[in-house]
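Report of the visiting student (M.T.), summer placement. My assignment was to run the structure pipeline on a short list of targets and document each run. The first record concerns Putative ABC transporter ATP-binding protein YxlF.
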Amino acid sequence: MPVRTRRTRRPLLAVVLVLLISAGFLLWPREDAVPEVGARDLTLELPAGPGDASRVSIDATLYTPERTPAPSILLAHGFGGSKDDLADQARGLSERGFVVLAYSARGFGASTGRIGLNSPEHEVNDARELITWLAGRPQVLSDGPDDPVVGVAGASYGGALALLLAGTDDRVDAIAPMITYNDLNRALLPNAAGDPPSDATTPAAGPEAGPGVFKQSWAATLFSAGFTPPAAQRDPADQDGETPPNEADDANEADAPAAAAADGPLTCGRFSSAVCEAYTELATTGRPSAETVELLAARSPSSVTGSIRVPTLLVQGRQDTLFGFEESDATAREIAEAGGTVRVIWYDGGHDAESPGEDLLDEVGDWFDFHLADRGPDPGTGFEYTLPKTGPNEETPPRTVTTDAYPGLGSDDGTSRENLRLTGDPTPVLTPPGGQPASVSSLPGLGIGALPTGPAGGLATDLPGQVARFTSEPLSESVLIAGSPRITLQVSAVPGQPRTGSTVLFVKLYDLGTGDDRRLPGGAVAPIRLGDLRADGAPTEVVVTLPGIVHTIDAGDRIEIAVATTDQAYRGATQPGVTLVGLGGDEHLSLPTVAGTPTHVEPPTEPLLGALAVMALGVAVAVVSAVRRRQTADFDPELADVPLSTEKLSKSYGGGAPVVSDLSIRVESGQVVGLLGPNGAGKTTTLRMLLGLISPSEGSVRVFGHLIRPGAPVLSRVGSFVEGAGFLPHLSGMDNLRSYWAATGRSEESARMEEALAIAGLGVAVHRKVGAYSQGMRQRLALAQAMLGMPDLLVLDEPANGLDPPQIHRLRTVLADYAATGRTVLVSSHLLAEVEQTCDHLVVMHRGRLVAAGPVTDIVAGDGEVTFVVDDPVAAGLALRTLRGVEEVASDEHSVTARLVDTPASAVVAALVAADVAVTQVGPRGRLEDTFLQLVGGETAP
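After the run finished, the structure tokens were exported:
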């Protein structure tokens, strides 16, 4: 960061002093201190399953308040996490006066067993056993024998556990599930085609259609979390406090990792064989068998919500392409129908953004205060949703809208809707062979579809020839959409055109602002799967329920409905075909609205210090804003010539374990840098943060001194080939490149097309149709596309995939030539030998952390051993033994090897030449592969 001069420090210091004086009055010590919380780690032995004599070890921590007995709360974590992720929430609840048991579900953290996706016989039964264990604690308040006063809370995976447990164990008194699912079949195989139930008038009610389109990107991301190796098992002798009656003994604890590894094929990671087989089937075919549908249904809260009658707080995120509003909407309807009480909150976050923060966790605490401890005001059964921020100030607290009840539950009249006509002719859309190239709406955990498109962002992309568009007139007044819009379409086959199998389409709602402002709210898309269309071309009319959103369409903006044949996040149709898509119905688009009372931030109300509080608050805002502007300045002139630098970069998804942790690297101009690491090292996540596709959880990325944010202008100096280039097979390579460049909004002259083509070495093949290209030619075309505009920083992910040895050799030359122009190349690759020959610098990651960085020769020759290829090894050995700083000299038939201690290799070469020994090659003794395996503990590169 730039060094502040004295002139800039003094005013800031003066303001800080004023703030401190004011704070002295405002922050007068209070008599009530934070209650002390006790915490004790436990390992509980539970039955492995029905009729199974073996046991699983569940790693848990019991938090106890100052005063007991007290009501209890069972706290469950998200998928891929552990009890450690719950520590802050558990302490906060215990400070409120609750006994809290936070635990790692089987297969996660230090708990043993296999992951069964909240199997009723396994994970849900584990939770029942934990409630029984709580009932036996003297610290826990009881409703009766074996019946503790207990609530259950959790997010995502843990939220579903709370619902499943409440529906099967009547000892549960209240629950607070967050950002979770109702039906795994609908969540992972969504089908938005068809009318919602006639009696469903809630804001985000969807159709009850059969299995739809496999959400492959999210499913793969979640499945990969099950391959995380078990954490080191805890020795019971190291635990504090008394030993629980059913705690694991040392022998069982030592055997637990081996037992877990032996139970099931290695390809399943830590999953049960049934879950592994279901995922394998979906990942390879995209369609579920009846057994898979049954398995997912049994693990879905929808199987038990008809039995839930306890007070339920449902929290769902409006930036969530994994579990959207339709999931909490269905849960709310089903619990209300069963006679339970429900409060619903839609907040500004989700799996694609922020996990529930302190404000929401306080709401969870208030919920349990009232329903478990009989204290505090009644939270009620209302509905609250967060409005999207419209101003430039990101520090402004989001506004919320509240209503007395969730629309459509009980006696409520339901959701209001506005109808809107669209225009657009029926359009034939192409499904390409293999479903590739595919449009982009969002990527798991990244939410890129919510960002601007076009020249400002260029992220959400619909491919020409694969999309039909229907647009409204500019709106005369703004409209706030709160819920799931619906569109009526007509879909028909095109006689004479190829068609095979069912029809798969992806429907999206865009907000078209002025200029290039084009947004896909929430980054969400509605997949639909239709049966065989009529061969005579007669249309099939279908109602499509789009994903639930909270979004304001401003007056003057237009709404566009895009219907695409492909989407990168889903496994769509792979057989080629042409479908005609048009508008249906009289009023094409139905927009849900939920009127309510806006909530504003209340001013301070301390009776004697109100005026001082207002003044101090103003000073505080000014100081914090000034400091924040300095700390997060968009540009650091000291790094203006540095192509890439990261500082304490970290990223985690949905409250899970960090994927990247505390990564600080620096890449200089003219370097070819290799990014290496085994599977799960965090390389792709790092590249996505570098390109502004996702935002870091902590830390920063700077390119030429500019802070990287989504759509940052400096990204125009970066060329990339990360997610795979989507080329249209019926166009030539040149036409594909021109179409891509035109989509960036920059002038044709700035593309420097000829330079990029010359470096990539495509020759005359660039004028042939891409459909006739070999894999190697496609890779070269992708490189040319990344090099358009001759960016100063080139980022490539596995550029040598599919290339044969001559093509790899050519790629090596291409990258070296590009770096020779003074530009910088960053390459992520699993070909260690090629990295060693191509790159001059390395960055090695392992489990999200940096383990090595520097020149290739320094990393490979970590112990200083260097090999000299010479014409006379014997004479060379004699000469080297006389030199200072040269040790452990050894000769073979063609070379001599020595360890250099504070002696440069150039000095050794000079001594050999002086001794009449010809030196033909100098290099580190080791191989990159050997060094890599040492650095990552034997794990292989991806």
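The radius of gyration is 31 Å. The chain has a mean pLDDT of 81. I thank the supervising group for their guidance throughout the placement.
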